[in-house]
Known about the structure:
Elements: E1 10-11, E2 14-15, E3 17-19, E4 22-24, E5 31-35, E6 42-47, H1 51-70, H2 73-89, H3 91-102, H4 106-127, E7 134-136, E8 147-155, E9 158-162, H5 170-181, E10 185-189, H6 201-208, E11 215-217, H7 222-231, E12 237-241, H8 244-254, E13 259-262, E14 267-271, H9 277-289, E15 299-304, H10 306-320, H11 340-355, E16 359-362, E17 366-367, E18 370-371, E19 374-377, E20 394-396, H12 403-412, E21 415-416, E22 418-422, H13 426-435, E23 440-443, E24 456-457, E25 459-460, E26 463-464, E27 466-467, H14 469-475, E28 477-485
Helix pairs in contact: 2-4, 2-6, 3-4, 4-5, 5-14, 9-10
The protein binds NADP nicotinamide-adenine-dinucleotide phosphate and SN-glycerol-3-phosphate (G3P).
Amino acid sequence: MQTTEFPDIKEGLEYKYYCGGKWEKSISGKTISIRNPYNDDLVGKIQACSKEEVDKVIRTAQENIDCWIETPLNERIEVLRKSAKIIRQWSEPLGQLLMKEIGKPIKSAISEIVRTAEIFEGTADFAATLGGETIMGDAFEGFTREKISLTYRVPLGVVLCIGPFNYPFNLTGSKIAPALVAGNAVVMKPPTQGALTPLHYGKILEEAGVPPGVFNIITGRGSEIGDYLVGHPSIAMISFTGSSETGKKLAKTAGMKPLLLELGGKDAAIVLDDADLELTVNAIVSGAFSFSGQRCTAVKRVLPMPAIADELVNKVLEKTIQLSVGAPEENNTIGPLISSKQCDYVQGLIDDAIEKGALLKCGNKREGNIMWPTILDNVTTDMRIAWEEPFGPVLPIIRISSAEEAIKISNKSEYGLQGMIFTENLDLAFNIAQELDVGTVQINGKSSRGPDHFPFLGTKSSGLGTQGIKYSIEAMSRPKVVVMNLSERGKLVRECKSDL
Ligand code: NAP
Ligand code: G3P
């Protein structure tokens, strides 16, 4: 399949929103400037769309869904495969743009794009196996085999896909692919900071064969149009990734409609006396500081047992101070946080901890939006950093004296995304894992969402529902049941031989 060259979808630096197969300027006449968080360069401008345009994109999706539902599944699957090919072909320019708009190190930015192609391909593969089940009535007393239940899956309608700033292309694509393959129409609201790269889905899906109006993009601040979008009566389902604060507000506004919410986290690494320290240190440092800690599944607490705590802290420190710091285009591990406001928030957590007696091992240094990786030892539960999600390069060490204490502190968090246990005793690890109130427990590995066919979910303030290729398709469709009540008139009579 020959795809066109990477398209220039902007005019000057201005990007339009995408509705009914057309790129349009907002009637508001306003745009929002997107600036590079590393050097404050103007990267682009997006439309500050109005509520009238929210109505317009949703109405357009509603009006065009029928042709998509009628499209055979194998053709919808082929569209995903073509989309994946285009995404792969454009991964370099898309990665460069992503790096500029959110400050992600260039290699991670490009891998986010490629990973999204893999999600499109995996979704296409799984969708081909989509089916239902047939159940005979005679399992229940009083019913016969002439009553037969036939089930298959049907789309929900117009699905609203809202993504976060830290994986703006991947965590919108991971929603769009299952929504479309299930037969839904889609309205996507990308994060404002991180909107430019996902705006290219308009071109990608058009090239891949999605009919005009089936996929639409609205841009604008969530604080201005988010509630109206979420509460719109024509939205049949919402797949959201973002902060717990926004997710909880969204759930209240959305009312009676299916929700898939992937929210914040405070993932704790429990390190037992017999842990393989080299493996553990590598997992903790990579898990805590990749993309400057701006991952929901970042390692956000370390709970070491006494016998290994000092050695662990020293090894984590030794590896942390070697992390490269600087420009994302030079692929430094530690780059800018998304905004100065976010840096201020993270600094507040560090200051609070130090004021309350935490031991600063490294970091607590800032230049512009870059914050050096910071390790705080002897963190106690009266400190904010023990409980709040920094979404920045800060790692609290909360020393524990028993596995029971580790479980208690882990479970006391309002979050329940993932947990980690580092030990050579897999029986003990499995027993502890069963006690942790989280979506996923990693044994001898760092918390992470991938691979993307795994179920990914959070408990408590970390989310609602389960993401992951199969799970997302199921969340964006529903069973349709047809019960056949056959007549006994046509029944073949079998003689039961009495001597059986
Ligand atoms: P955020 O501030 O909650 O924003 C997420 C998305 O929601 C953005 O597109 C935002 O639009 C939109 N939004 C804001 N207010 C809204 C409203 N009232 N109604 C509907 N949408 C609204 O989160 P973020 O700063 O982008 O991402 C960081 C947070 O997301 C962290 O807490 C992180 O843990 C979480 N996260 C979780 C996962 C996961 O898989 N569990 C993955 C990534 C991130 P604007 O950009 O225009 O404000
Ligand atoms: O915060 C984004 C979340 O989805 C984490 O993804 O693959 O970095 O664990 P990952």
